[in-house]
Amino acid sequence: MNIAATPTALNADEVARITAEELFPIVRKIDDERSYPEAIIRAYGKAGVYGTHIGGIDAPTDLSNAILTMATASEACLSTGFCVWCQDTLAWYIASSDNDFLKSEVLPKVAKGQSFGGTGMSNPMKAMGEIEPMRLKGERVEGGYKVKGMLPWVSNLVEDGYFGSMFHVDVEGSDTPKRVMAIFHAAWDGVKLKLDHDFVAMGGTATCNVQMRDVFLPDAYILGDPADDFITRIRSGFTLLQCGMAAGIIKNCIDLIKQVEAPLGHVNRYLEVQAGDLEAEYNAVVSDVLNMAKTPYDTSDAFYLRVLKARLDGGELAMKAAHWAQLHTGARGYVTHGAAQRRLREAYFIGIVTPATKHLRKLIAEFEAA
Q1: What are the sequence ranges of the domains in the chain?
Q2: Residue 170 neighbours by CB under 8 Å, 6+ apart
Q3: Which site from 6, 120, 240, 359 is most exposed, i.e. has the minimal number of CB atoms within 10 Å?
Q4: Beta strand 162-169 with 178-185: parallel, antiparallel or unpaired?
Q5: At what angle do helices 64-76 and 38-46 cross, to 10 degrees?
Q6: What is the tens place of the pLDDT at every residue in 205-226?
Q7: Which residues fall within 8 angstroms of residue 173, CB to CB, at 6 or more apart?
Q8: CATH C-level class of 12-116
Q9: Percent of the chain with pLDDT over 90
Q10: CA gap 324, 337 in Å, rounded
Q11: Is the dihedral of CA 74, 78, 80, 85 positive or negative?
């Protein structure tokens, strides 16, 4: 039996309290000062946020609670919601693997929010989609691999954190390298982190450039070698989890529209999209996502295609909702500390984070043509 760990109990009331009493008051600081909400990320871990989906491939696994708690964080702040996704996804990698060492030594710390980490798969996903070249290259050595290269953006990453990623290894007699996926520790020799927060939003995400100079990767940290089957195993869960970010920001944008109905409803009624219109679309997307969240290990192409379409719908609806929230709130939402303008900047992140809107459309077209 391939069972990773017993899922942790989720304290939903505590998640709601943390969000309302601890996160909401510092949202402007996170946005304005690019402040990483470390205390919030740890508190969510104590409340069981990152451990509801870590049963493994032979245990009943449902991503619903992970998606909904991510949505709760994202209602307040997408930087924080994105960090929750990074933490959830790192746990997803390990829990979905056949690696008993990582399941026993690293997964419990990640699930409890004691160790932080990121996904490190933006470049590999684009490389697999033939959008850009693979940035990391490995060479087989005794006991593991020697890896070098640079990953431009890995988020939720601190000096003693972990991140997953993939690298190419040349195969003798073949023009096609093999892909290997593994977990890396940021404190290993040869790993160097450089904060990179030059974004119009999402500055509070501990996003780093990761440089690797002949880093020794022990065999004990490998997730898939070769990685192809493992990627097929985790791809739907990876993508579905992102929908929590979209759900949270959509819901908050609907709330922003409702908040100005009393003072501005007499003129806002002439806008062609109202809160009720967005709510109908929101409910349809969330219902579909939560239905698929019950079977995240379905490896069929048909299921993955359905997941990709839901992720695309969620991202596009997030941008649409933020657009209309800005128009409904008008000038009061367009000031420096206006919530609507922040949500608009954050919503576009959902449209460009890997897999971005254009990447999703490319994948959907390829699967439909197959």
Answers
A1: 12-116, 122-224, 228-369
A2: 137, 139, 177
A3: 6
A4: antiparallel
A5: 150
A6: 999 999 999 999 999 999 999 9
A7: none
A8: mainly alpha
A9: 95
A10: 18
A11: positive
Domain 122-224 - what CATH class?
Answer: mainly beta
Reported as type and span, the H/E element at residue 145 is strand 144-154
How many whole angstroms separate alpha carbon 50 and alpha carbon 107? 10
Q: Nearest CA to 159 among 202, 207, 192?
A: 192
Under 8 Å between Cβ of 198 and 246: no
The amino acid occupying position 275 is: A
**Closest to 312 in 3D by CA, of 232, 231, 246, 235:** 246
- Sign of the dihedral defined by the CA atoms of residues 204, 323, 244, 20, in that order: positive
Residue 70: name the closest of 53, 57, 55 by CA: 53
The pLDDT tens digits for 122-154 are 999 999 999 999 999 999 999 999 999 999 989
Omega prior to 263 cis, within 30 of 0: no
Asked whether the beta carbons of 209 and 39 are under 8 A apart, the reply is: no
Give the Cα separation of 292 and 287 in Å (integer): 9
Rounded to whole angstroms, the Cα distance separating 241 from 49 reads 13
C-alpha–C-alpha distance, residues 66 and 50, integer Å = 7
Record: fold of 228-369: Butyryl-CoA Dehydrogenase, subunit A; domain 3 (1.20.140)
Query: For residue 186, which of 219, 138, 154 has the smallest C-alpha distance?
Result: 154
Query: DSSP letter string over 336-347?
Result: TT-HHHHHHHHH
Q: What is the mean pLDDT of the chain?
A: 96
Rounded Cα distance between 229 and 54, Å, is 19
Q: Residue 175: count other Cβ atoms within 10 Å of its Cβ.
A: 6
Torsion of CA 156, 196, 154, 86, to 10 degrees: 30
Residues 6 or more apart whose Cβ sits within 8 Å of residue 341 = 326, 333, 334, 335
Confidence of residue 9 (pLDDT cuts 50, 70, 90): confident
Phi-psi region of 260 (alpha: psi -120 to 50; beta: other; left: phi over 0): alpha
C-alpha closest to that of 124 among 224, 243, 245, 4: 224
